[in-house]
Amino acid sequence: MTFEVNFDDKETQIVEDYMKQNEMNFSEVAKQAILEMIFADDADLTAFNQAMEEYKKNPTTYTHAEVKKWLGLQ
Question: Taking a C-beta distance cutoff of 8 angstroms, is the pair 29, 22 a contact?
Answer without folding.
Answer: yes
